[in-house]
Structure formats: C-alpha cells, structure tokens
C-alpha cells in the first residue's frame, strides 16, 4: 500500500522576508538631503542635529554633510554635520 506521509514539515516551512533594518550610512560617510541614515523599529537611535525621524522611526538627513554617531545621557544619537 503505497501512500505519502503527511506533509507536516513543508506545511509549516514558510517564513517572512527580512525587513532590511539597520544602519544605512555609518559614521564619517557623506549624506545628502533626504538620505536614509537608520532604518529601525522603535527608537534604538535618536535623531540629532541635521536629522529627523519619520513615523516609522526611520532617521533621515535634513542637511548634507558627514554622519556622526554619539551618546547623550545614555542614548545613541545620530547627527549630520556639515
């Protein structure tokens, strides 16, 4: 009696795609206006001078210049300084 086993392994084998989060421009790199610096869920990194945060917590450059990471009161800050 030939038959196929229950496909339990393939049934639950689906997975979601990665969301491509993370730092897009590192410290010392050039950023122009509108460039995305950090893509994140929640505020792991806070915006500083020359940057702003979108409603999905994306930090982007408001001015062109060099990306600079620092800490202030225990929080990671990203700035774009010209």
From TrEMBL:
InterPro entries in UniProt: Ribosomal_bL27
SUPFAM superfamilies per the UniProt record, alphabetical: Ribosomal L27 protein-like (SSF110324)
Keyword Ribonucleoprotein in annotation: yes
Region (Disordered): 1-20
Presence of the UniProt keyword Aminoacyl-tRNA synthetase in the record: no
Gene Ontology BP terms: translation
GO cellular component: ribonucleoprotein complex; ribosome
Keywords: Ribonucleoprotein, Ribosomal protein
Molecular-function GO terms, alphabetical: structural constituent of ribosome
Superkingdom of origin organism: Bacteria
NCBIfam families per the UniProt record, alphabetical: L27 (TIGR00062)
Protein family membership: Belongs to the bacterial ribosomal protein bL27 family.
Name of the molecule in the record: Large ribosomal subunit protein bL27
């Amino acid at each position: 009696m030939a038959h196929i086993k229950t496909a339990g392994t393939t049934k639950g084998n689906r997975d979601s795609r990665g969301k491509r989060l993370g730092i897009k421009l590192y410290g010392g790199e050039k950023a122009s206006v509108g460039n995305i610096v950090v893509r994140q869920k929640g505020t792991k990194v806070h915006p500083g001078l020359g940057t702003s945060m979108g409603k999905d917590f994306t930090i982007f450059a408001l001015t062109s210049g060099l990306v600079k990471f620092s800490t202030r009161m225990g929080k990671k800050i990203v700035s774009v300084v010209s």
